[in-house]
Design goal:
Elements: H1 9-13, H2 17-58, H3 63-74, H4 90-103
């Protein structure tokens, strides 16, 4: 079994158009995944803030947001390549909520 090796622009220069097209496709797929992940992470961060604000408005305890994200983090939630993940890392989410609690918001 032969594995494809990324050759980037050199593939096009060498006349291997099939390999050049594949490498271009892989690069565009990776770029699309990155953009979508960043958009999704921004939405998740906004949802976290919404939850915090709603709990505040209702006069309910917000510490559960921190401990929930800490528990996810301890179980590997949000681990992996953060730049390509659909959710921000759980440790970061816990820190964000703790920062808001510390500010008394």
């Amino acid at each position: 079994m032969q594995l494809l090796q990324y050759e980037g622009p050199a593939a096009a220069a060498s006349g291997n158009t099939a390999l050049a097209a594949l490498s271009g496709s892989l690069a565009s797929d990776l770029a699309e995944q990155f953009v979508n992940a960043q958009f999704s992470q921004a939405q998740e961060t906004a949802a976290d803030s919404y939850a915090f604000d709603l709990l505040t408005q209702l006069g309910l305890e917000r510490k559960g947001l921190v401990t929930g994200f800490q528990k996810l983090a301890s179980q590997g939630g949000g681990a992996g390549l953060a730049l390509l993940g659909s959710h921000p890392p759980s440790e970061q989410r816990a820190r964000n909520m703790q920062t808001r609690l510390n500010r008394g918001q």
